[in-house]
Amino acid sequence: MRPLGFEPPDPADLRLKDGEILTAGDLSIKVIHTPGHTPGSVCFLLDGNLFTGDTLFVGAVGRTDLRGGSFDTLLNSIKTRLLSLPGDTVILPGHDYGERPTSTMKREIEENPYITDFIL
């Protein structure tokens, strides 16, 4: 069956590890495992910029109705893995760019209803 209209991809042959540092030239990118959207969700931290993929959006969080997704796990990932980052960390989500395509950790802690209502 092709639920999305295409054949599923081959399984990954390389898995990123939490805390692993990826390098590309002079760049160092830290892998932060943030399960919830999917079991293997990760964010990437690079020089004070957090690429959040589908974990954290500006004013929202990723959906959790996909196979292996869990709202409670997603909130726990945000609470235990992301909220301790410096307030000036720039949030760069994977999509859903609205009026503000980026944010900061401080602003999300103060204004994101999923953080203010469910985590804090």
CATH superfamily: Ribonuclease Z/Hydroxyacylglutathione hydrolase-like
Terminal Cα separation, in Å?
Answer: 42 Å
Report the principal-axis shape: globular
Tell me the total number of β-strands. Answer: 8
* CATH top-level class: Alpha Beta
The helix/strand class is alpha+beta
| Multimeric state | single chain
Portion in helices: 10-25%
Q: Which stretches are poorly predicted, pLDDT < 50 over at least 5 residues? A: none
Query: Which radius of gyration do the C-alpha atoms yield?
Result: 15 Å
Number of domains: 1
Q: Strand portion, in percent?
A: 25-35%
Largest sheet: 6 strands, mixed
**Topology as H/E string?**
EEEEEEHEEHH
Mean pLDDT equals: 93
User: Helical element count?
Assistant: 3
Explain what you see.
It is built from three helices and eight strands; from the N terminus they run ββββββαββαα. The longest helix has 12 residues, at 71-82. Strand 3 and strand 4 form a beta hairpin. The protein has helices at residues 71-82, 105-111, 113-118, and strands spanning 21-24, 27-33, 42-46, 49-53, 56-57, 60-61, 90-93, 103-104. The model has no long low-confidence stretch (mean pLDDT 93).
SSE topology sketch:
Elements lengths: L20 E4 L2 E7 L8 E5 L2 E5 L2 E2 L2 E2 L9 H12 L7 E4 L9 E2 H7 L1 H6 L2
Parallel strand pairs: 4-7
Antiparallel strand pairs: 1-2, 2-3, 3-4, 5-6, 7-8
Write a brief caption for the model:
The chain has 120 residues and is α+β, with helices and mostly antiparallel strands. It has helices at 71-82, 105-111, 113-118; strands at 21-24, 27-33, 42-46, 49-53, 56-57, 60-61, 90-93, 103-104.
